[in-house]
Amino acid sequence: MHRIVAVLIAALSLAGCAVAPFGENVQLPKGPEPEVTGKVAEGKLACVARNLTKAQRQVAFGVVGGGDKTGKANYSSNDGTGAFNTQGGADMAISSLGRTGVRLVELDPVYRGTLDWFQAKAGQELVGDGVSRPAVLNVRTQEGSVTETTIPNQEIKGPDGVSRPATLKVTTNTPPKTESQTVQIKNIPLRKGTLYPARYVIMGSITGTDFLPGGGINGGAAGLTAGYEQNRIAQRLDMRLVEFPVGDSVGGRIVATTTVKKQVVQDGIRLQLTRYFGDVKPQLINLEAGAQRREPVQDSMGDLIDLAVGDLLEQKFNLYKCRNETVVSALN
């Protein structure tokens, strides 16, 4: 009986690893730290933020792209799968840059489209600030008119050479009358401003998501069976830093590149007890318990982007002292 109680306690303990009280968060598991291809690098963002000079913090950065390019693009077809990773890589990269203290410029297509829409409306005088100001308008006070005058007792000679009496009509055109009036209007056109240019643009995408086969072990004796299994997802991220033309400068040069890889780990354990208990009337008892854990895939991608952004800034500003620093994981 004591052994049964011990097995029950162990099974409940395993199940407790995967659940939590209703009002509390489940503890998120943490797998291996991400690595930059060719070297281990952690804590990049913190190190870069500490070592940037005041002049370097004034350099403006923007982000374009950052989505998942590992899945299919045609979602209307019935074959293949869509993207498994986040499409918000650009938003994560902006957050990573913001933690370093550099100047940020918005380059999102939604922002650019909204700006173009407002400026187009301003050109049509359909956008204003709502403030009443006097304006001079030309107001038409009288419409033009056309009058006809009949002149009687006139004779005209017809085709046969005979003169006959006729009535002539004379048309007089009176132009409209226009006056200038001062009125109060609220439709003040939006003035076109100046966009702050980005000096460098971070571009890239998620280029790898591979589901590794994994493995496990299972065994038992005396009615007690136990098993363990593990699976992994291999992720890859490629990003680059591109020079943007400002003033008379030439843009398009790629000044830094980086590749970051990580394996997301999932594992689980299972226990099963199947035995007869009782001497007089034996009863067959079957008990199963198990638990699984997996690193959150999207949070893991956030770690990769943190590391990639820090590595690009390290290369750009020659912050070699940050090469072997560690990244502060978003899961901690």
Helix/strand structural class = alpha+beta
- The end-to-end span amounts to 41 Å
Task: Please indicate the percent range of residues in DSSP E strands (runs of 2 or more).
Answer: 35-45%
Radius of gyration: 39 Å
Helix content bin: 10-25%
Uncertain runs are 38-42, 328-332
What is the helix/strand order? Answer: HEHHEHEHEEEEEEEEH
**What is the helix tally?**
6
CATH superfamily of the largest domain: ABC-type transport auxiliary lipoprotein component
Overall average residue pLDDT: 75
> Which CATH-level-2 architecture of the largest domain?
3-Layer(aba) Sandwich
Task: Give me the CATH fold name of the largest domain.
Answer: Rossmann fold
Describe the structure.
The protein is α+β, with helices and mostly antiparallel strands. The chain folds into two domains: 2-72 and 83-105 and 196-322, ABC-type transport auxiliary lipoprotein component (Rossmann fold, 3-Layer(aba) Sandwich), CATH 3.40.50; 133-185, no CATH class. It is built from six helices and eleven strands. The chain has helices at residues 2-16, 44-51, 54-57, 89-100, 109-123, 297-317, and strands at residues 35-36, 60-63, 103-104, 133-142, 145-157, 163-174, 177-185, 200-221, 224-243, 254-277, 283-294. Strands 1, 2, 3, 8, 9, 10 and 11 form a seven-stranded mixed β-sheet that branches. The radius of gyration is 39 Å and the shape is elongated. Residues 38-42 and 328-332 have low confidence and may be disordered.
